[in-house]
Write a structure and sequence with these properties.
With 301 residues, this protein is α/β, with parallel strands linked by helices. It has 9 helices and 7 strands. Strand 5, helix 6 and strand 6 form a beta-alpha-beta unit. It starts with 12 loop residues before the first strand and ends in a 19-residue tail after the last helix. InterPro entries: NAD(P)-bd_dom_sf, SDR_fam.
Amino acid sequence: MQDGNDKPLKDCVVVVTGASRGGGRGIAHELGAAGATVYVTGRSTRERPADTYARILALSGETTLPGSIDDTADEVTRAGGRGIAVRCDHTRDDDVAALFDRVRRDHGRVDLLVNNAWGGHEVFDGVFVAPFWERPLDQWDAMIDRGVRNHWLASRHAAPLMVAAKRGLIVTTTFWDRDRYLDGNLMYDLAKAAMTRLAFGMAQELKPHGVASVAVSPGWMRTEFILAGFKTDEAHWHEVPALARTESPRYLGRAVAALAGDVEVIAKTGRVVTVGELAREYGFTDVDGRQPVAFEMGTDA
């Protein structure tokens, strides 16, 4: 997909799921900056925000859900690509089928799917560490049924288009800490490990068709909810010592754009790669010019 100009992804057709805010928004922005046509999907529109975030909004001290697919699509276009907002509930097979039918009608193909839709934020209760027997049952539904399943379902609809074209890339956003256990958060650990394994398994079946599947693990991102939780914003986060190790969502976006522009990306299929490692390999930085190292739990790096 790389052609050496300042819009290396100008011919790339992309679907980014869960792109109203957070990592999905950062990914969509950077793909737009590289010239891609980006279908920005999720449930939050300007007129009708998703209504399942009351718990985390209360914990953050916020009353309004940040971001929408319309905002992100406009941002993609301003960055230099073409942003197309499509409301899609990624838990619903009919919604996801309609999304990919539209992409097929519009372009006849999809070059890149970024699986990012995630239900875990909807049930966050402010408890980071607790034994699994004290965790509420709805965390399974949110993280597995509205997390792992979302990734599988979108991939299921994208794969036939990629296989027919004998090319394509599926990126799965995950969290990976070198196979260590995320102590005190079994459900999150299980869900992210399942996503990583999903990316690996899909790679085995897609590789003979020339299609790659890669899991990408960012560090601690300064999402809208993280910034709200620390009572700051993107302009002032440097003033909060606890956020010193954070990355912007666009650092993850630059990692995905680099993978999409790599004509040899099939060599990475089946792997889980960190944003910090990709930054050094491909030579990109975060928005502030830093190049944060690959994130590890329990380090001061």
